[in-house]
Amino acid sequence: MFQLKWVWKNLEGCRKRYVFALCSTAVLSMMALVNSVLTAQIMDTVFTPVKEGQGTTPELWHRLVVLVSILIGFTMFRMCFNYLSVMTYETCSQKLLFKLRRDLYANMQAQDSSFFSKNRTGDLMTRLTGDLDMVRHTTCYVIRMIIDCVVLFLTTSITFLCVDWLFALAMLAVTPIIFILTKVFAKQVHPLYVDLRERLSRMNTAAQENIAGNRVVKAFAREDYEIEQFDKKNEDYRKANLKASLLWFKFSPYIDGFSQSLSIAVLLVGGSFLIMGRISIGTFALFNSLCWTLTNPMSTLGMLINDLQRFFASASKIVELYYARSTIVTRQDAVKKEGRVQGAVKFDHVTLKRNGTEVLHDINLDIKPGETIAIMGPTGCGKTSLISLIPRFSDVSGGTVSVDGTPVGMYDLKKLRGSVGIATQDVFLFSDTVDGNIAYGDPEMSEDDVKRFAKIACVDFVDKLPEGFDTVIGERGTGLSGGQKQRIALARALAIKPSILILDDTTSAVDMETEKYIQDQLAHLDFDCTKIIVAQRISTTKRADRIVILDKGRVVDVGTHEELISRPGYYREVYELQNGIAGEKKGGAA
Amino acid sequence: MARNRFDVDETLETPFNIKHLLRAGVYIKRHKQKMILSLVFSAISAACALVGPKLIETALNVAVPNRDYKMLFILAGIMLLSILLSIFFSVKRSRYMTVVGQAIIYDIRKDLFEHLQRLSFQFYDDRPHGKILTRVINYVNSVSDALSNGIINFILEIFNLILIAVFMFMCDVRLSLVVMAGIPLFLIIVLVIKPAQRRAWQDVSNKSSNLNAYLHESLDGMKITQAFTREEENAKIYNNLNTKMYKSWMKAQYTSNLVWFSVNNISTWVVGAMYLVGFSLLGPAVQIGTLIAISAYAWRFWQPILQLSNLYNTFINAVAYLERIFEMIDEPVLVDDAPDATELPPIKGDVTFDDVTFSYDGSINVLEHFNLDVKAGESIALVGPTGAGKTTVVNLISRFYNINSGRVLVDGHDISKVTLHSLRAQMGIMLQDSFIFSGTIMDNIRYGRLDATDEEIIAAAKTVRAHEFISEMPDGYYTQVNERGSRLSQGQKQLIAFARTLLSDPKILVLDEATSSIDAKTERLLQEGLQALLKGRTSFIIAHRLSTIKNCDRILYISNKGIAESGSHDELMEQKGHYYQLYTAQLEE
C-alpha cells in the first residue's frame, strides 16, 4: 500500500483537484441511479395511468413533457459533469506522470556508474514506459472505478437495509465470501505480476541489446541465433502474462457465481416474502431493479484488484528508482570556489577497490598546473580508473585526490566537472548535428567557436559531409569512422575550455599525420590547461612533461621520454617495439 | 532521407485506412477456431443471462399469486442453472481471448523482430534506437486487447444492435425511426471528430516515441552528460518533450471523450422525443402497451452503440500503433538475398573488387572505380587518412552495403548473388566498436561459434592474450559483463571481441582497428600468436600503428576514392610516397 501513499505524495499540486475528481465520481455513481428513477417515474405516473384507462389527458401530456425535459436536462448536466470529472482524472494523472518523468529523469542523471552497471538500459526503459503507464492507469481509471463500485454498492446496501433489513441481509450474505476470495486472489496474483514485469524488463533488455549491437550481429551472421534468443524472451513473457491472467479465471467463476446468485436470492427470498406478505410488490420491484448495482461492483472489483496488484508490482520498481541515491553527490559542506580552477592535481596515497579487488594501489602523483602528463601501461592496468577519479566518476577507497589543494570530494560537483574536459575511450556521440555535438558542454556556444575548436581537433572532414556542421550524425556516432568520432569527441572536450583536459586514448584511431597536427594544436591552446593523456603510442606520449607508467594498479615509473628510454623497463620495450627495433628481430619470418 | 532525431516526428506517408486493421486480420485468422468458438460462447452466455428476468416475471405472475413455494424453488433452480451456464461459457470465452490476445502480440512481435534482423546498418544508423525499441516492446503490447476482445465484442455488439433493432421495429416502425433518428447525428459527430481524433492519437504515438528516444539516448550517454555537466540542459530538453507528450495526450483525451458524451446525450434526446411522439400518437394508431414495450427497447438500443463507440476509440488508438508497427515490418530490406541466391560453397579466400563505385548517400562517392585482387591467404593492410574509406572497403566484402556499380567477388562468386548468411558466416569481422553483450565472458566469446567447447574458447582467449586478465577476474570466464559494465577496460573489450572473431574460424579475416586500445606489449604478443593463425586465411587489417601492419604481404594506401599506393612495406618505402612519409613520421617520433 505504500505505493498508493507515494502516488498521493506526488500528486502534490493537484491534490485538491484529485479529491474533487474522487468526490465527483461518488456523486456521479449516485446520479446514474437517478436516471432509472426518472424513467420509472415516466412509466408510473404517465404511462401506467393511460394503460389503466385514463386516456391521454392534457395533464398527463404536460407531465410527460416536464419529465422528459428534466430527463434530457439532467442527462446533459450529468454528462457535462462526467466529462469534467473524467478530464480532471486525466489532467491529474498526466500531471503526476509529468512530474514523475521529470523527477526520475533528474534522479537518473544524478546516479553514478555503479548504478548504471547494475541497471541496464532496457530495464530502466521498462520502468519509464510500461511501469509508469500502470501508475497512470491506476490513478485515472482503477481508483475511479473502485470508488464507483464502492459507492454504488454502499448506496444500494443502505437503501435495501432501510427498506427491509431481512431481505437486504439475505442478499448481502455472500459479500464476506466474495471479500475473502478477492483477498486470496490478490495474494496469489501479486508474485505473478512481479514476475511478469521482470519478464517484460528482460525482453526489453534483449531487444535493446540486439538493436545496440546490430553491427556485431550482422558481422557474425547471428540473426537466427538472435531471433531464437529473443523468441525465448518473447515466449517467457507470453507465458508469464497468461499465467497471471489465467489465475483470475480460477477465481472469477466463484466470484461471479456468488455475485450473480443475488438474483436467486431476489427470486427465492423475495418471492417467499411476497407470498408471506412481508413485502409489497413495490419493494420487490425495487430490489429486483437495483440488484445489478450490487452484482456488478462485486465482479468488477475482482478485476480492479487484478489491476491494482499489477500496479503494486510496477510502482515498487518506480519507487525504487525514485529513491535511488548516488553516493557521489555534492557534499553539504562543499567548499565554494570562485574563479577558474588552476589545474593542479594531486593523488595522495590513493587506493581504489572495485567489487572487492584492488584496482589502484597507493598512487602518489603531483601534477602542476599547465603540465602535460602521459599515462601508459598494459591493458587493464587501471589507467582509466585513475583518471576517472579526477572528475569523481568514482570515489577513492583510500587516500585523497585533490584539485588545487582541495579534495575533489569537497568540490561542488558541477564546478569540478565543469573544469574537467574529458574525451573518453569509448566515444559516445549523440544523434545531433556535428555542431550540437561539439557544443555539447555549452549549448550557447557561437558557431565561430565551434569551428575554431573543430579546427584544433582537426575535424576537417566536416566539409565532406552533406550538410557540413549541420549534418545529423547517428546515435553513438554511427556512420562516422572511429578516428572521426574521436576527433569530434576531442573538440567537444576542448570546447568547454577546461582547466584539466583528460584524453583517454582519444587519438588511437587517428592517423599519424592528423595526430601530429592535433598535438601541435594542443601545445598552443589559448587557455591554461593541465593535460592528462592516456595513450598506447609513443608518438602521443613523447612530448609529455612526464610519463607515468602504471602496472597492475601501481605507479612503477615516472620520467620524461628521454629518461625512460634510457633505462630498461616497460616504456623502453614499447618504444623499441613501435620503432621496429625489436620487431625486426622477432618478426623476421615475415 | 535525412536522419531522424528524437525531436522530429516521423511522418507517416500512408493515409489512414482500415487496411491496418484488416492486415492485423492475418494474425487473428490463425486463431479463427478460437475466435468463432468465443463468439458462440458469448452468445450462449448472453442468452443464458436473458433467462433471469423472464424467471422473475414468471415468479411474480404465477408462483406468487398461487403461493406456490415449490414452483419458486424450481424457478430458482433453473436460474441457478442458467447462471452457472452463463458463467461457464463467459469464463471459457475470456480464457480463449486471453490466450488469443497474447498469441497475437507474440506473433506480431516475433515478425517485427525477425524483420529487424534483416534490415541493414543504414536502418539502424538513420533513427534513434529508442524509437525502434519502443515499437518492439510498448507499441505491440498496446494492441493486444483491441485485437482479441475488441474484435469479439465488436461483432457481438453489432449482433446485439441488429437484434434489438428488429424487436423494436416489430413493435412500431414509426417510433423506431424516431429512436434511430439519432444515428445520423451521431455519425456526423463521429465523422467530424474522427480526423482530429486520429491525428491526436498519432501525435501521442509520435510524442511518446520522441520522448522514449531521447530517454534511451540519455541513458546510453549518461557518462558524457555527467562529464560535461549537461544535466540541466538535458533535463530541459526532456521536460520539453515531456510537456509535448502531456499536451498531446490531453488533446487526444479531450476529443476521444466527446464520443461517449455525445452518445449518452443523443440517446436521451431521441428516447425523450420518442416518448413525446408516441404519446401524441396514442390512440388507435399506437397502443399504450406498444409504447411501454418500445421504450424498454429504445434504451437498450443505444447501449450497444455506446459500447461500439468505446470500442471505436480503442481501435483508433490501436490503429495509431499498428500503423507504426506495420510501417516497420514493411521497411524495405536494402541488403537482401537475391531471389535466386545460392549458398556460397566453402571458400579459399580470393577477394576481387571489380570496378566498384560506392556511395553511402547516393551523392558523394566514397570509392570510385575501385579495383583490387587479393589471393587466398594474402594479408592486406589498409592505411590512409581518417575517413578515406578503409572501413568502407572491408564493409563491402561482407556486403554490409550494396555497391552502386561494379562487382565484388569472393572465390569468383559475385557476393550479391550468394546468400548473406553463407557469405558472412565464412568471414570473421572485428569492428571498430567492439560490442559486449550482457552475459558471461564465455558467452561473449562463444558468440563467434555457438558450438565451441569451453576448451576452444579458452584456447582462443589464450591466443589473443586475454586469458590472463580473464583468469584474474572474480569468476574467471563466468564473470558477468555488459556493454556499460565498468569491469572491462576498452582494451580488454577489444581482446574479448578479438577472441570472438578468431573462434569463428573464418577464411577471410577483417580486423578494423582491432588493436587500437590494446597496449603495445600485449599487441606484440598477440601478433605472434596471430602469425600462425593467419596462415591460410586471407586477412584485411586496418591500423594506424604501422608496427602492426609492417609484416603484411601487401599494404594499400587508400585515398582519393581509390588505391594511391600498393606494395609490400619495402616496396612502398622505396617509392618514397605517402606511406614512406607516414612511416618516417612515425619513426621520427
UniProtKB/TrEMBL annotation, chain A:
Pfam families: ABC_membrane, ABC_tran
Annotated membrane topology: Multi-pass membrane protein
TM helices/strands, residue ranges: 18-40, 60-81, 141-160, 166-186, 264-287
Keywords: ATP-binding, Cell membrane, Membrane, Nucleotide-binding, Transmembrane, Transmembrane helix, Transport
Gene3D superfamilies: ABC transporter type 1, transmembrane domain, P-loop containing nucleotide triphosphate hydrolases
Residue ranges occupied by any ABC transporter domain in the UniProt entry: 345-577
A cellular component term, taken from the record's GO annotations: plasma membrane
Compartments, record wording: Cell membrane
Protein name as annotated: ABC transporter ATP-binding protein/permease
UniProtKB/TrEMBL annotation, chain B:
Membrane-spanning intervals of the chain: 35-52, 72-91, 151-169, 175-193, 254-275
SUPFAM superfamilies: ABC transporter transmembrane region, P-loop containing nucleoside triphosphate hydrolases
Domain ABC transmembrane type-1: 36-317
Membrane-topology descriptor: Multi-pass membrane protein
GO CC annotations, alphabetized: plasma membrane
Keyword terms, alphabetized: ATP-binding, Membrane, Nucleotide-binding, Transmembrane, Transmembrane helix, Transport
GO terms, molecular function: ABC-type oligopeptide transporter activity; ATP binding; ATP hydrolysis activity
Pfam families hit by this protein: ABC_membrane, ABC_tran
Domain ABC transporter: 351-585
Localisation: Cell membrane
Database matches in InterPro entries: AAA+_ATPase, ABC1_TM_dom, ABC1_TM_sf, ABC_transporter-like_ATP-bd, ABC_transporter-like_CS, P-loop_NTPase, Type_1_exporter
Thylakoid listed as a keyword: no
Name of the molecule in the record: ABC transporter ATP-binding protein/permease
Source species: Hominenteromicrobium mulieris
